[in-house]
Hints:
Layout: E1 3-8, H1 12-27, E2 31-33, E3 41-46, H2 51-68, E4 74-79, H3 80-85, H4 87-92, E5 98-100, H5 108-120, E6 127-129, E7 151-155, E8 157-158, H6 169-173, E9 177-178, H7 181-193, E10 198-202, H8 222-231, E11 238-242, H9 251-259, E12 266-268, H10 276-282, H11 288-301, E13 306-313, H12 320-333, E14 337-342, H13 360-382, E15 389-397, E16 405-409, E17 414-418, E18 427-435, E19 439-444
Parallel strand pairs: 1-2, 1-3, 3-4, 4-5, 5-6, 7-10, 10-11, 12-13, 13-14, 17-19
Antiparallel strand pairs: 8-9, 15-16, 15-18, 16-17, 18-19
Amino acid sequence: xxxxxxxxxxxxxxxxxxxxxxxxxxxxxxxxxxxxxxxxxxxxxxxxxxxxxxxxxxxxxxxxxxxxxxxxxxxxxxxxxxxxxxxxxxxxxxxxxxxxxxxxxxxxxxxxxxxxxxxxxxxxxxxxxxxxxxxxxxxxxxxxxxxxxxxxxxxxxxxxxxxxxxxxxxxxxxxxxxxxxxxxxxxxxxxxxxxxxxxxxxxxxxxxxxxxxxxxxxxxxxxxxxxxxxxxxxxxxxxxxxxxxxxxxxxxxxxxxxxxxxxxxxxxxxxxxxxxxxxxxxxxxxxxxxxxxxxxxxxxxxxxxxxxxxxxxxxxxxxxxxxxxxxxxxxxxxxxxxxxxxxxxxxxxxxxxxxxxxxxxxxxxxxxxxxxxxxxxxxxxxxxxxxxxxxxxxxxxxxxxxxxxxxxxxxxxxxxxxxxxxxxxxxxxxxxxxxxxxxxxxxxxx
Length: 446
């Protein structure tokens, strides 16, 4: 059997897919390594949302192939870039063995086995599988819990039907397909039995879950029905979800935060732009006024709600006035944090062919300016925690200092503190002593 190195680029959905691939490989007798030089199999799970992510994956693959030299290593691309580029990747990199798309993750273990045997036998082997597969959403389940993991991602759907003009996801992930509530609940019960205390429900447009497959019941959307079912799982402490779309935030979802205690006070609510003209060009189906009204409704129901967002700068045709509108919306909302992206052309998307493409230098300038504004708001939103106690779920050692522990507040703020391993997986209060904006530091009150 082979030793496999997997590197993941992109979103939480990709991380979840990599976990599933790792589980299937282990079940097939292979082992997973974090040391790339030890690997017989190298798999890069790719992202296509921005050109930079693709270039990083291509550069990494080129470096790994060069380092391997004559060693018989199997190389493969998985995921969104594999789906988007397909056989083109084999033409660009003839030494590749596997190109496996987003609907075929459940086939990776089989293909790895064939490729590894061919390598041992010194036989040339390559396969490209980017075909659509019916019910592929039902193959994304039952991943491993390891290393004292206390939180887990759970994919509840695949694909997207929104067709935003800048986004390649509908082309790489396909149309919306949702898993049955009972299957998702069974997976979460299994995870809780293995020590998981918090789940994050994942979907490209997560709050539109089930809209094509399942009916509303007494005015309650399929997504809120799912939240209610997950909330009943004994032993589960917290529920998160990402990423939603503003149009999917109806009254039943806003009210769910008040009646489902396990549903934490954090919403990631993509804005993308504060300019109505740019939002229309993006095909986002809401205005800045409607977005701000939604934020007011959410905070009226749940005053402690932490709100984070996504913003794109430099979309085609974005004027200085459009950009200033985005800054104003950020100031009006006061986001706890934001992911700011420079617009990147994506093949086969309408925005790639739009006129008035913004220069890279201006994108960079606006990106830098907006990051400063977001950082200022992050500090302002974190400062009130100092001197207060906050409930956290301890996840394990801090990534920056293994001698300390870290956990997250219900609002998804990272808290670092001193403590023993017996605290991992526990809910307790930490008195916050100081803040850097993105990280809080405190003392456990257990």
